[in-house]
């Protein structure tokens, strides 16, 4: 019990960093299915993580990318290592891409349009990550 409470208190700020900027958390496989199959238009899905590159690059990069002229219609997140079943369900939609966290998936009408994987996040700077995301937005968002 103590461990679970400790982990929740440690993880909550990592969740808040996205949800305070409008990202909707998908906590169950059913929520993932409903979101991916029910949303029209474009969606940015952030696969959140507790690692350093998520804290210093992925989450801030995702938030900063939303200042771009073109941006996704919906912003969603799953948390790898926390909601394991929801994350596994989301990854089923990322056809052609291996599991990666943190990562970003750009979806359109429930289909994967592009992905920014962990190896493209770590060891980069925030401007490079934002550019990768905004390039996807320019290609697929209206």
Name its key features.
142 residues; alpha/beta; 6 helices
Describe this protein's structure.
This protein has helices spanning 2-19, 29-38, 52-65, 84-92, 118-121, 126-140, and strands at residues 24-25, 42-48, 74-79, 103-108, 111-116. Helices cover 49% and strands 19% of the residues. The chain is globular. The protein is built from six helices and five strands; from the N terminus they run H-E-H-E-H-E-H-E-E-H-H. Helix 3 crosses helix 6 (126-140). The N and C termini lie far apart (47 Å). The chain has a five-stranded mixed sheet with strand order 1-3-2-4-5, sandwiched between helices. The longest helix is centred in the first third of the chain and has 18 residues, at 2-19. It is an alpha/beta fold and 142 residues long.
Radius of gyration computed on alpha carbons: 14 Å
The unreliable regions are none
Order of helices and strands: HEHEHEHEEHH
Fraction in helix: 40-55%
The assigned structural class equals alpha/beta
Q: Give the N-terminus to C-terminus distance in angstroms.
A: 47 Å
Q: Largest sheet, if any?
A: 5 strands, mixed
The general outline is: globular
Q: Mean pLDDT, as a whole number?
A: 94
β-strand number: 5
Tell me the strand order in the biggest sheet: 1-3-2-4-5
Count every helix, treating DSSP H or I runs of 4 or more residues as helices.
6
Beta percentage is 15-25%
